[in-house]
Each structure stands twice: as structure tokens, then as C-alpha cells.
Hints:
Number of strands: 2
Oligomer: single chain
Number of domains: 2
Helix content: 55-70%
Strand content: under 5%
Amino acid sequence: MSLAATSLKLPRRLKQRIERLSRRSGESAHAFMLRALEGHVEAAERYQAFLDDGVRADEAMQRSGLGYAAADVHAYLAARVEGRAAPRPKPVRWRR
């Protein structure tokens, strides 16, 4: 693994909080910050992938003219949350 050095200026209070938490968890402040940054980056990447999937789905829907009736989707999800089997909603043509 290739490493790149960086400098991070932290507000004093934040640095104290990191040091306190890292001591409690038995890791260095560096390891704590690295783990926190990695987790945040992964969450941001997942969020961006979620948005990208939504854009692709919308583009496909716009091209095909097919979508799902909201009432059908809501009924399906309500049944699944309650643990009941439910048929998946069928696509409907929303554009002629």
C-alpha cells in the first residue's frame, strides 16, 4: 500500500475529543482519524453510487415510458414490511 503524507489542522477541542476517544478504544489518534475518514469516504461513495443509480433508472424510465404506479409500490412495500408475501408490482406505461 502506497502512503501519502498530509497535514491536518484541527480545532483544539476536536483534537481533544479525538484523543479522549482514541485512548478509550486503545488505538492511536492517528488510527482513530484514519478509520473515521475511511468510513466517511466510503459512505460518501455509497451515496454517490445511489444517486448515480437513480439517474440511470430515471433515464431508462424516460426512454422506455414504463414505470410503476405509486399505489402498487406502496401496497407491495407495506405487505413486505408486515411479513406477508406480495406479488411484485407490474410496470405500467405512463407515456404514450
